[in-house]
């Protein structure tokens, strides 16, 4: 969003020490630093305007205002975060639409169904009429949590197959939701908040995995903490009326522009766009750390700037999209190397990279240029990249 560029310029990052989860412990003592990509340098852009390493190819699977190939479904504008779900021998890709009601537009969630060979079998809507659906998260029980990024935003639980109606989950809190990540070991859902002084929350369902009831807690620690133990405290009124959730708990740690969120193997990775940081929450030890701190990079502008949505490959590599910057998606390896994986060129300069997610077999990566070639919210292009991903 346009406000982020201004706010980032006003933020000065503090010094950082970093560690990650599972395979990351001890590997990032100085934070991820620029280095050679495990895939090599980017080649000149292909016909779709995508720069990729050798051995990788791209195709456009959705363009706003146009029918998805082989279907009658028109792909929506402002495609954002997404996820993939196994469907027999094929899979389903779902993506949010960050269209705002304030501009007379309606957001929601769309789906594309793929056959085993990667051909498109169908496309359809699984949620429509909501407001500014930005990020979200997949659940282990095969639903997609779609989040509204507005001050009174809600979380909607949707069915990627489109057979069941989407259900709003007000118990998960009313605030400027960004992303969700499910921790099945502790039976909680982590949530980010896209505010300059936002919180990092977790929702604890009363009866797992039913998300209709439960309590919301917020991470508490000194605001200058970048590495160390943290605690959680309950949010008295998750509905935020009249006091917004981030102002209810003394000692809540403030994060500047919470964005993407992804859980695996005891660790939740999440990003903050306004200071270009990638954080880790070690759920087993209840500690916080930094994987990447853009403000502390010797190279300015840094390789990875304006961090946004995040995902993780089976290899442990993190893929982080840029909101702005030079329209790249970067990889952060478990050895602490950050490098470009792909870049969109040309008229994409007024867009942002959104929604990286892998197909269930790890051979295809999906992401979008949210505003496409025109820079308008009603535009947007969604890509599939295929190649020898590390798994």
From TrEMBL:
Signal peptide: 1-29
Pfam families: PhoX
InterPro entries: PhoX, TAT_signal
Signal is among the record's keywords: yes
Annotated coiled-coil segments of the chain: none
Key words, A-Z: Signal
Name of the protein: Alkaline phosphatase PhoX
